[in-house]
Amino acid sequence: MRKLLLLWGIGGVLVILGAALYRLTPIALVPINDGSLTTFHWVIIVLWSLFNAHAEGYKGFQQRFSPRTVARAVYLGQHPTPLRVAFAPLFCMGFFHATKRVLIAAWGVLIAVLVLVAIIRSLDQPWRGIVDVGVVIGLGWGTISLLVFFVAALFGRPPDFDPGVSARATPPA
Q1: Which of 89, 126, 140, 142 has a CA positioned 20 to 30 A from the CA of residue 19?
Q2: In whole angstroms, what is the distance from residue 114 CA to residue 95 CA?
Q3: 10-residue mean pLDDT series, the chain (173 residues)
Q4: 3-state per-residue secondary structure call for 118-162
């Protein structure tokens, strides 16, 4: 049962990330495929990609989001409730039954992403594609890191990471 809950929680998060990658990758490839990029554009793509790989992929996903998300999925398997099970992907991402810090991070990132999506959609090519190349790299890195932590947890090696579950949401021992 615990592995099924782990699969439901992390699988749902992977679907969300995969859907974003599926939507953004073709847009990111437009300026690359149409040959309209100048040397300046390529320099920007490389620098932006390196920045996103480090800031979003490594620092954001690999060091924080992915291990916490899997730790919360493991916690879910140990402490299931009907609400947590029904909304396991959202629980794993920290949208409820989380510490104040995790809640602020989860909701803050969601709001920031929604605002940035609205702004980026208004950009013309090649700039929209350039921005999306970096985002795809960060999301891709994040998806892979989540898969690595997930597979490790399936084989009994969950991340040693605080799941950030609110003390009010924790059942008594």
Answers
A1: 126
A2: 15
A3: 92 97 96 93 97 96 97 95 96 96 96 95 94 96 97 93 83 53
A4: HHHHCCCCCHHHHHHHHHHHHHHHHHHHHHHHHHHHHCCCCCCCC
